[in-house]
Design a protein that fits this description.
By secondary structure, the protein is an all-beta fold. Helix content is about 0%, strand content about 45%. The chain has no helices and 8 strands. It is globular.
């Protein structure tokens, strides 16, 4: 398990509504068990409503929803830690975090 937060691209895609959406893109080196730390205060999220994880089936081409094993999350001291699940290592992933 490796913290890959610094290798990820964070984008707040819905910044000004009551709902918040953050998109996190990983590099093609993301492995199962890697973690990403998200500072919820930085994005104005008080409550996390859900997380979706997509995986690039073909690099930079088709993205599919990772449904067999959902990524796990934990919140401590206003930091959401997302642990990548799934059964495929070395693939780009896109995580979408919904909050309010």
């Amino acid at each position: 398990m490796v913290d890959i937060t610094s290798e990820c691209t964070f984008e707040q895609t819905v910044p000004n509504l009551a709902s918040k959406v953050i998109t996190i893109k990983t590099l093609a080196t993301a492995d199962n068990g890697d973690t990403i730390a998200v500072d919820l205060d930085k994005y104005g999220i008080k409550n996390v409503l859900g997380v979706l994880t997509f995986i690039h089936a073909t690099d930079l081409s088709v993205m599919t929803l990772e449904t067999t094993d959902a990524s796990t999350t934990a919140v401590s001291s206003r930091t959401l830690t997302l642990t990548i699940a799934g059964s495929t290592s070395n693939k780009r992933r896109v995580h979408v975090i919904f909050g309010e």
